[in-house]
Every structure is written in structure tokens, then in C-alpha cells.
Specification:
By secondary structure, this protein is an alpha/beta fold. It folds into 2 domains: 135 residues, Response regulator (Rossmann fold); 55 residues, Arc Repressor Mutant, subunit A, CATH 1.10.10.10. It is built from 10 helices and 6 strands, in the order βαβαβαβαβαβααααα. Strands 2-1-3-4-5-6 form a 6-stranded parallel sheet, with helices on both faces. Strand 4, helix 4 and strand 5 form a beta-alpha-beta unit. The two termini are 33 Å apart.
């Protein structure tokens, strides 16, 4: 694999542009495109569906969760290598990311050596998890947090924003019945008896 182009999706412009400069200056990646809006990234991928890219994806995005974006990226371009960049140190967050099998997971606090190591591993078709998150996983081996699907996290995001069931159904192009079923399933997974408890759980573990 010989990817020479990277895409960065991060809704913080300063971080995205600074990270792009880092990639172009210190790695073999020659061209980096930065995006703040998910729709812009999807439009670009739709126009370049047969090209290989490294995609560096933030977990916390303005209007969505990074995991739902990951699924759409894979639908638009199956050749991409997706690396999550996150400032989170929450074990349930890292657990959920890893369960979706990205090509890499890096802490935003990582140094250049970790970034280079990640790119090299992925070029060898090996998944890479940075030392910070490997240590977090080792410490929490006996603690298996709740695993939510990307769709469930997307719906949770709307609930956190205060959307009603009807509004969430409209946003996600699902029926109200399906939204209610997802809510019931999430509450069961998190052992919650009310939506307020589920939102508290979400906030406590910084899932959104």
C-alpha cells in the first residue's frame, strides 16, 4: 500500500490545519486535505471513490459521532485507511472505537514518533493502537463497558441535544417505532430504567 494523500476531519480548524502541516513536513504523505464539515468530506470521497487515502478522523464532532462517520466513509471508499484521533481518555469511548475496527487509534497528545509508528504499521496492514490506549486497555481488562453501535451513538447524540423521538426519527430517516426500539435497547445495555439515567451514563463516560 502506498498512500501519499491524507484527509483530516476535525471541526477545530486550528488543530486540523496544524496536524496537516505536521503530516506534510515529517511523513511520506505529500498532500493533505482538511475538512471541518462531514458533508464536505463525503462529497470529496464520492468524487474519489477509487483512490487510496489515510483518513484521520476526530471522535467528537460537532453534529455527529465519529463512529457513524466511519461507517459512511467505508461505504463511500473501501480503500481508505481510517485512523481515529481523540483527546478522550474514557475507557468506554476507546472500547467502542476499537469494536468498530478502525485501522488505527491515536491520542491527540501523542508525539511525532507515535504518528510515524502508526503510519508504518498501517502500511504493513497492521492495526495500530497507541501506547496510551494500550495501557488503558490493560488496566481495564476485567472491565467490559457497554458496547453501543454507531447507529445507537448517533441516536444518543440527538437525545443529548434535546431532540424528541419524532425529531430524531426525521433526522435519521428512521421510523418512530425504530427509535423507541433503539432507546429501549440502549437502556437495557446500560442497565438504565429511564432516558434521564441513560443520558447521565452517556455524560459520565463522555460517550458523546
Amino acid at each position: 500500500m502506498n498512500q501519499k494523500c491524507a484527509l483530516v476531519l476535525d471541526d477545530h480548524q486550528l488543530f486540523g490545519e496544524s496536524f496537516a502541516v505536521l503530516l506534510e513536513k515529517y511523513t511520506e504523505i505529500k498532500t493533505v486535505y482538511t475538512f471541518q464539515e462531514i458533508s464536505e468530506l463525503f462529497r470529496f470521497l464520492g468524487q474519489h471513490s477509487r483512490e487510496k487515502f489515510f483518513i484521520f478522523l476526530d471522535y467528537y464532532l460537532k453534529d455527529a459521532n465519529g463512529l457513524s462517520v466511519l461507517i459512511d466513509i467505508r461505504r463511500l471508499n473501501k480503500l481508505c485507511k481510517i485512523i481515529f484521533l481523540t483527546s478522550s481518555t474514557s475507557w468506554p469511548v476507546i472500547y467502542n472505537i476499537e469494536n468498530h475496527n478502525p485501522d488505527g487509534i491515536i491520542s491527540k497528545a501523542s508525539g511525532l514518533d507515535i504518528l510515524l509508528e502508526c503510519i508504518l504499521s498501517i502500511q504493513k496492514d497492521q492495526q495500530y493502537i497507541c501506547p496510551t490506549f494500550r495501557e488503558l486497555k490493560a488496566v481495564n481488562l476485567k472491565s467490559q463497558p457497554v458496547s453501543f453501535t454507531a447507529r445507537e451513538l448517533e441516536i444518543l447524540n440527538y437525545f443529548v441535544e434535546g431532540y424528541t423521538i419524532a425529531e430524531t426519527a426525521e433526522k435519521t430517516f428512521l421510523s418512530r417505532h425504530t427509535i423507541v426500539a433503539h432507546r429501549r435497547n440502549m437502556m437495557s445495555k446500560a442497565n438504565c430504567t429511564s432516558i434521564s439515567q441513560l443520558l447521565t451514563y452517556t455524560s459520565q463516560w463522555k460517550l458523546i
